């Protein structure tokens, strides 16, 4: 993807200029990512003596959690753990050992948000064994699985889980298994030059207060990492689907599935497995926010059109929650993405007899071939259950998403070999509404349709 048009670049730059000036940010860097590359980068303010560049480091806070989660999912894919395992199976001695790994990843464990002791983000951390000794039953704030409750402590536990399985600390696992393969060489657990200094901005005066920065030790998996706009752009591309050899695409898609909703009835924000989720302007975004004393960062990616946006700022507070979605809106207004060109697909010609209209009772559906031996079932009147299916070796199809995810679709043939109907987990789909010649459970009234 080529860089954005000059008019688009101007509109994007103006949005971050308004943000930096209006929110009084010492510096602000932002980028738009398309098809795995930076299509626009902009910066305002000063990080030290110079304007931020694509190589300037900022602390990215809780974006760290997503990287830890990827290593956990790699362990799952390797068969070393199950997401339904209680964490006590892997970290004996925890007072909430019944909480599952999936609940820790999705912030539905019910654990307290912060660890016991002093404000962990502003004080030197402690080894995991010391942290473990401070934990008691009181760290359980809610019944596991009952509700979304963000827990930094939960990711401290996940970091220890990674360390015990890899035989090295969590940071080494993240570096070797994620950062190096993705080419994110400027992403580190401690700052390196050139980097921004973290500040608090006085609420009633234009003056700054430097914020402390420490190694968080046992709590580091919740927010230790520093990164650059260039590296975070690569991470946005990863979340959008450019996984390289780091993670199976199906596993990343699983991480992006909603596991919890974090804004109640509004239902616009949620959490998957280590990834925050948002629905804005017709887009379904995945990524994460980050906040540590002196720093704010966010990265969002839209897998549907391989677009990402990100920002990094060296201020404890102040960045608008809509900054990145505003940048996406600018992009959509100035350079709406063109739909992909239609081209014929390679399909198995023997499956053509399956394609076309089918009826679940009186409700019309369309079964389409989507390439290879894959199928797509969609209601024709937009009322019903849609799912995609992938072929199995036994001649049946397995549901990939929607209501029929994990369920089996099987063509049923008559003794002479002709196609009779489809059996979808006991539901019968026929070529005509309630076809009397098909094996419809309960039978079809012999007098047929009537006025």
UniProtKB/TrEMBL annotation:
It comes from the Bacteria. Keywords: Hydrolase. InterPro entries: AmpC-like (IPR050491), Beta-lactam-related (IPR001466), Beta-lactam/transpept-like (IPR012338), DUF7586 (IPR056008). Residues 347-431 form the DUF7586 domain. Residues 20-327 form the Beta-lactamase-related domain. One of its GO terms (molecular function) is hydrolase activity. It holds the Pfam family Beta-lactamase. This is Serine hydrolase. It comes from Planobispora longispora.
